[in-house]
């Protein structure tokens, strides 16, 4: 059996810690969504002007139209991901409040996918820094990503512990996983009679 936290940050219950995490995630995703919407409302000329400035400052030749399209598509993707994060965070908060463990699963899935992507990014950045020949750069990447990944893993385990706690609460006295719940007092007389 894997390690399961009994409290969040050593001082609050798993349920309250999950709710706090859900609210922080909701606020962060919502602010990111608003930021993306602000940039999407900018005119196309603003993006092409910005791309032209960047190419002149860095002495790089790039087509401003292609650069603007890339910027707009990146902002739209960020807005879509922020919108999905907002919905998943709302589901997490509602799932904990209403004791619905199936509403917590999308949040867990998105966080596990995020952790996997962070791992791939770390490995690719270390590979690039080794190829370039900068050991200091790869050490910096490790110092930045590994603590972030450890904190993310701990918070995923807190949400998973809350999920399991809600599943256990919902299973007391009811059927769980197709197996009927049997009281221990019902088993004792049968064992003594045999």
Describe the structure.
With 194 residues, this protein is mainly α. It has one domain (13-173). It has helices at residues 14-40, 44-58, 64-97, 105-132, 135-171, 184-193; strands spanning 7-8, 12-13. The chain has a two-stranded antiparallel ribbon with strand order 1-2. Strand 1 (7-8) and strand 2 form a beta hairpin. Helix 3 runs antiparallel to helix 4 (105-132) and helix 4 packs antiparallel against helix 5 (135-171). 15% of the residues are buried.
Residue runs with pLDDT of under 50 for 5 or more positions: 179-194
Question: Major beta sheet, specifics?
Answer: 2 strands, antiparallel
Query: Per DSSP, what share of the residues sits in E-state strands of 2 or more residues?
Result: under 5%
Instruction: Indicate the mean pLDDT.
Output: 83
Percent range of helical residues: over 70%
Terminal residue distance: 33 Å
Structural class given helices, strands, pairing?
mainly alpha
What's the total helix number?
6
What order do the SSEs take from the amino end to the carboxyl end, as H and E? EEHHHHHH
How many structural units, i.e. domains?
A: 1
Rg, rounded, reads 24 Å
Number of strands: 2
Give the CA-based shape. Answer: flat
> Within the largest sheet, what's the order of strands?
1-2
